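ok trying again, last paste got cut off:
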Amino acid sequence: MSPARQPNGSPRARKIARPAPIAPPLQTERNAKSPRVAARKERDFAPHEFLATIGEGRTSVVFQRRQGIFAQGDAADAVFYIQTGKVKLTVVSKIGKEATIGILSDGDFFGEGCLVGRRSRMKSATAMTDCAVLRIDKKAMMEALHREHEFSDLFVAYLLSRNIRYEEDLVDQLFNSSEKRLARILLLLAHFGKEGNPETVVPKISQEMLAEMIGTTRSRVSFFMNRFRKLGFIHYNGGLQVHSSLLHVVLHD
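nice, full thing came through this time. structure:
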């Protein structure tokens, strides 16, 4: 896990009976669509095209892999929208322990805490790949949300779907085995259950980072990854490829 970073990418110093295991509802073709998918299905509205028309207050920025976008404690004065690429969100505790709390990709927003009065960043954002990102000033974003109701509806649906994801993460952490948690994270990284075809090839991510995301050790992640590979659920071919058969680990005890 890399340390939290300054905006220019340089390192920055900081740092009862138990119910039977259950699987959070990872979206499949049999599941109901998420609010984010439903919003896109119901409206012929492209947020990236609309955001490109905001004008003043909008800046297109390119970040290289591993470059910091903002750091924990920085002033919160803008919202970001990912056009292409993947972004990692991390937090650091008072004793310097760092944890990855999310990996975002094309079409995702982040940094929206400024819209509710948050003055400083509570997390750091770092480019996992080369990224093209729209930086939208707080004032411009607020005006766009008030002016364009379709965009406002889509943004609210996005926030609701992400809140549901956080709740599912908590359930996953409390009740499921580390093997099942790892399988779920890999499927989410490969976009299984989301609109469109899954990517199957997950972004380059270390076993240490996976271990921190699911709350276990690197040795356990290595053990499970080898098991998944032997069972044909994943394989390596210029990158980690995830197959839909991995769903069996999530959906079955």
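cool. Residues 149-175 form the longest helix (27 residues). The radius of gyration is 19 Å.
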